[in-house]
Design brief:
Elements lengths: L5 E6 L4 H10 L5 E7 L11 H4 L9 E2 L2 H6 L3 E4 L6 H10 L4 E3 L6 H10 L4 E4 L5 H17 L4 E8 L9 H14 L3 H4 E3 L13 E7 L5 E8 L4 E8 L3 H14 L5 E3 L1 H4 L4
Helix pairs in contact: 1-9, 4-5, 6-7
């Protein structure tokens, strides 16, 4: 680690988001990647991260030892896979390092493990690391609080054709934000798509709809529909770079923080 710079252990380094974080971090004065980790059997193992990202030689060699990587870094950033995130968390706990997890589709037991770990280390789990999405969530919360259940709430998301989970973690996060603001139970009031003769829309229902196609990085719209007007709050992602920038902002924010559960809203001073 270099004085004055936050050293990051990047887990899931060989994926599209991992390589984008490597590019965004390259040459920054405040943060750099000191360790890169991939799963056992990955074709990226043994490769120079910077060369793999098109930056030339001189980066960390990608390995499979997450414990060692975490122990040699200031912050762990995980962008691996839902079934691997729990192992990354164990490594962060082993080294008592803060962890930023941007992996989507985490099972309930893994989310519970992150909650427990926040008693020992700083933890930030976000299905979407965009700073703009954090602002969208804050605006949606204020709008629902102000307008109440007189306005129907619908959430529409669109992603590229290769995305494997639906609806997106971000859409679910926005739905839960809206439900809390409206004072209703999300587990009983979310409706995922509609088909057939479903009847009139009941008050308090929150519709969540997933659209897939092309190469869309991620669009999310929160719709509040009243009888005489409609409010639409939309965030559109135009590049993977914005998620990489958010991941680094989150890592820098967590460095030096006490144990606890943090969000992207905290990173922006909104929490």
């Amino acid at each position: 680690m270099t004085a004055g710079r936050v050293g990051i252990a990047l887990v899931g380094a060989g994926g599209r988001m991992g390589l984008e974080i490597a590019r965004v971090a390259f040459g920054r004065p405040d943060a750099h990647i000191v360790a890169a980790v991939e799963r056992v059997g990955s074709p990226c193992l043994g490769r120079d991260l910077h060369e793999l990202a098109g930056l030339g030689p001189g980066g960390p060699v990608i390995g499979a030892d997450a414990d060692r990587a975490a122990s040699g870094a200031d912050v762990v950033v995980d962008l691996s896979a839902p079934d691997a995130a729990a192992g990354t968390l164990t490594s962060a706990l082993f080294g008592l390092r803060p962890i930023v997890c941007g992996t989507t589709g985490l099972p309930a037991e893994t989310l519970a493990a992150f909650d427990r770990a926040s008693g020992e280390i700083p933890v930030l789990v976000a299905p979407n690391l965009s700073l703009g999405v954090a602002v969208l969530a804050a605006l949606a919360e204020r709008a629902v609080t102000a307008l109440g259940l007189a306005y129907d709430i619908e959430i529409v998301e669109m992603h590229h054709r290769d995305k494997t989970d639906a609806p997106s973690g971000t859409a679910l996060m926005l739905a839960n934000v809206a439900a809390r603001a409206a004072g209703i139970d999300a587990s009983e009031n979310l409706r995922f798509g509609r088909e057939g003769r479903v009847g009139a829309r009941p008050q308090g229902e929150i519709g969540v709809h997933a659209v897939r196609g092309g190469g869309v990085f991620g669009d999310h719209t929160v719709i509040l529909a009243g009888k005489y007007e409609r409010l639409e709050l939309t965030h559109r992602a135009d590049s993977r770079t914005l998620f990489a920038q958010g991941a680094l902002a989150a890592a820098l924010f967590l460095h030096g923080k006490p144990p606890g559960r943090y969000t992207m809203a905290h990173v922006l001073g909104l929490g």
